[in-house]
């Protein structure tokens, strides 16, 4: 047998950990549904072009992080590194752009070749929402509010700050880009090699460089606010007024940008201090040019994606599964009866553990190990009398219950 480890940057979610993930997946479905968003699931791989077109050749994701391969038919495919491109491709494939607005949420695995660390994996999971066909600031307000309500439902809003910025419309951005490039050229000797290279290809990306030298230069860079057209400034003011009205706090971060041409107006991130340097839990913005860039009819869009690993580390799962009832049949006849009894109880919603074998001591030990709340013990004598001993494993007390009443006595009361 070759290596028995999982591949670097991947992770097995064992049953103990699954409730934390489930909690996050359930939360986006619950909150998304109340906002009228429907679930969409697109394939885990797409033609490589789908991501290249939408993410751009200069993005980190396309230039260094994609899992790209040729399949046996020679098709160039890529494991999806994010969700938006696939959703956009899907609505175009299905001819849905005539019936906007389209409101979707998604959840599932994503793949990026990155240096693994806490909160950064090669296979990770995202939940996300996309709102297509809404050009008004009401769309931005809605998706941000949905994100805030999701974080609130997960109990992490208190540890999280919403950072927000605008990158304006095309005219704002062109004016800003010229000013930024002029400024950066004047400080070129202080920039990292990466940023020097980005300076002409994709200058906005210098603003979110993590290099300390770059950051010092960026601190005094021109601000987007000074280059916004009146339309772009109004748009952003309306978004902020909506958040104010809803009592959603935020912090202006003038350097929160997206480098690609189809991004515009609002950019935002919910950031926590509780996860070290991987503090962004949910990130999004407006992407009015994306569908047009992919070859579809010009359709505005706004959305976000959140990291499930990061959220599941922060949030306590809401409910745990009900505790089990352990069946402890003693002898062949009881063993046979236990099969039938277990099924009836399970159909009534009771979590049942069937001990599979062994003597009383071994079975009681197992009941204890799985944390069962009660044990139902019966041997030939009980069977002959049509009863069983129901033992409370927390208190130690024991009561005799007629087998015919067991399902009723142990059934889960449903609201
Ligand atoms: P970063 O700057 O941290 O690399 P990013 O800009 O690549 O982030 P997005 O593409 O905006 O991240 O993804 C949205 C969210 O998905 C992130 O805020 C994060 O919570 C999560 N995420 C992104 N990459 C990973 C990863 N490799 N492992 C785990 N979670 C991730
Ligand atoms: Mg990244």
TrEMBL record:
This protein's major location comes to cytoplasm
Compartments, record wording: Cytoplasm
Q: What class of enzyme is it?
A: ligase
Pfam entry (one): tRNA-synt_His
**E.C. number:** 6.1.1.21
User: Which SUPFAM superfamilies does this chain map to?
Assistant: Class II aaRS ABD-related, Class II aaRS and biotin synthetases
According to UniProt, the reaction catalysed is: tRNA(His) + L-histidine + ATP = L-histidyl-tRNA(His) + AMP + diphosphate + H(+)
The record's annotation in Gene3D superfamilies points to: Anticodon-binding domain (3.40.50.800), Bira Bifunctional Protein, Domain 2 (3.30.930.10)
The answer, when asked if Lipid biosynthesis is one of the entry's keywords, is: no
* Keywords associated with the record: Aminoacyl-tRNA synthetase, ATP-binding, Cytoplasm, Ligase, Nucleotide-binding, Protein biosynthesis
Mind telling me which CDD domains this protein's record contains? HisRS-like_core, HisRS_anticodon
Which HAMAP family does this chain map to?
Answer: His_tRNA_synth (MF_00127)
The name under which this protein is listed is: Histidine--tRNA ligase
Which organism is this protein's natural source? Tistrella arctica
